[in-house]
User: Fold this.
Amino acid sequence: MHSVAAYRDHFTAYLESKTRIKDPQNLYAPIHYILSLGGKRLRPVLTLMATELFGADYRKALDAALAVEIFHNFSLVHDDIMDAAPMRRGQPTVHEKWDINTGILSGDAMLINAYQLFENYDPKMFRSLAQLFSKTALEVCEGQQYDVDFESRDDVSIQEYLKMIEFKTAVLVGAALKMGSIIAGASQKDQNNIYEFGRNLGIAFQLQDDYLDAFGNPETFGKQIGGDIIENKKTYLYLKAMEKGTESQVLELAHLYSIKPKEPLGKINTVKEILLDSGAVEVTKTAIKHYTHTAFEILEKLQLPLEKKGMLQDFGKNLMRREV
Assistant:
C-alpha cells in the first residue's frame, strides 16, 4: 500500500501525461487549464487506494481515476457558469478567462473524454464502470438542479437538503471508491459497502463544509468565511435555525436571507449569532458525527484485514479533521 501523498503524486503525473493542448486549441486549452489548477485530487486518490486495498495494482485504476477527476472538474466548469462565479481555486474561472460558450463546449468535451477512458477496460469491466458512472453523473446533475431550485424556495426541508448534498457531492465519493473495488474484482457486497462508506463520509464532509463556511478559520479554510450567508444559501445550519429558533429569530433570519447588503459583515455576524443561539450549530455538529460514525460502522463490514480498514479509517479521520 502507498500513502495518500504517493497516490496523489502518481495520479498527478498520469494526469499531466494525458492532458495535452491540441487543435482546436480553444477547446482543449480550457480543459488543460482547469485540470492544472490543482485541488486535493481526493476522488482519484480514493479510486487508486480502493484498488490496492482489494489486492490489485493501483496502476490498473489510473484511467478510471482520471475519468472521475475529469468529470468532477467538468461539473465545476458548468457550475461556475450557472453561479456566475468569477474565481475557482484562486484563479479566474474558465468562462471568465475565455467566455461562456467556450466553457460550455469544453465542459461537454470533458464529459465525453471521461466516458472514453472506460474504453480502456475489458468489456465486462467497462460495462460495470460505465453503468456506475452514468448513474452517478445523472445524480450529480439532479443534485445541482435541486440546489438551483432551493434558491427560490422558502419551504426546503432537511430531508430535501440532505438528498441534495448526497447527490451533488457524496455519490461521487462513493463511486470513486466503488470503481477501485470493481477493478480489483471485489465481491458485490464489498463493492456496495465501500460505496456506502464513501457516501456517508461525503455527506459528513459537506455538512462540515457548511459549518466551516460560517465558523471556520479564514486562514485555513481556503474560502471566504460567510460566503453561504452572503449568497443566502439555505444550508443545513440555516434550515435547523429556522426549525429550532424562536419566532423573533426565525423572522430576523428570514429577513436577513432576503437581502444582499453591499457591506455584508454585519449580516454575517448577526446570522452567526442566531445560528449559535438557536442551537443549530450543535445540531449540525451532531449530524456530522452521525454520518462519520455511520461511515466507520460500514467500514467494519468490509472483508479486509484490520490494517487495511485502518487505512480507510485514518483517511476518513484526516478528511474530517479540518481546522475550524
